[in-house]
Design brief:
This protein has about 200 residues and is mainly alpha-helical. The protein folds into two domains: about 15-70, Arc Repressor Mutant, subunit A (Orthogonal Bundle), CATH 1.10.10; about 70-200, Tetracycline Repressor, domain 2. Helix content is about 70%, strand content about 0%. It has ten helices and no strands.
Length: about 200
């Protein structure tokens, strides 16, 4: 992730990770443009002066929020895959995790990166670069996990293709969840797609 060199003037008791977690929900529910500073500072439990002491502006906050999301909630599907004992179980856990993430009860439907970050990326090059970095890092981790479980596919370059398809499946689930796609149908589609990937890596 993009390093941040400073924590400017952070007031006593201001836990940056907690504040970012609270801001995640505001951006996710309202979108970037709809998340005004009053709503953000209220959710984060800080004043405007504390906000500007810690962040340059809303754009910088959103970048930090996107990074925080990618390292926590957004990382769950890949982490589930990385700890699995077999290829089949890795893909099963990944599939369950991406559907669960898109339908988490205590946050809005979809994915903060795919549903809000990608939209803002169209007008903010820094956020666009960050979203691309997150996607690339996710794909690299998936590819490495698949390589551990299906080493014979390395020579065919199948891991890279499979990882790309897994990322696309994650994004598809997020967007479909956001617009109300039925969860049971989503589960069926995810299982079918991952079964195809497993077959290709097992040949």
């Amino acid at each position: 992730m993009t390093p941040h060199k400073r924590e400017r003037g952070r007031p006593r008791g201001f836990e940056i990770s907690h504040a970012l977690d609270q801001a995640i929900g505001v951006f996710w529910a309202c979108g970037y443009d709809g998340a005004d500073l009053d709503a953000l500072t209220k959710a984060m439990g800080i004043s405007r002066s504390s906000f500007y002491a810690a962040f340059t502006d809303k754009s910088e906050l959103f970048q930090r929020v996107i990074e925080r999301y990618a390292e926590t909630l957004g990382a769950r599907p890949v982490a589930a895959m990385e700890t699995a004992p077999s290829l089949h179980e890795a893909l099963r856990r990944f599939g369950k995790a991406i559907v669960d993430l898109a339908h988490t009860d205590d946050v809005p439907l979809g994915c903060l990166v795919a549903c809000v970050g990608a939209e803002k990326a169209a007008t903010d090059p820094k956020i666009g670069a960050l979203v691309l970095q997150i996607i690339a890092t996710t794909q690299e981790r998936i590819e490495a996990a698949l390589a551990c479980h299906a080493p014979t596919a390395v020579a065919r370059g199948a891991h890279s293709v499979a990882a790309s398809l897994c990322v696309a499946l994650m994004q598809s689930c997020a967007i479909k969840a956001r617009v109300g796609f039925p969860i049971q149908k989503m589960r069926s589609e995810v299982r079918a797609n991952l079964a195809t990937i497993e077959e290709a890596l097992s040949d």
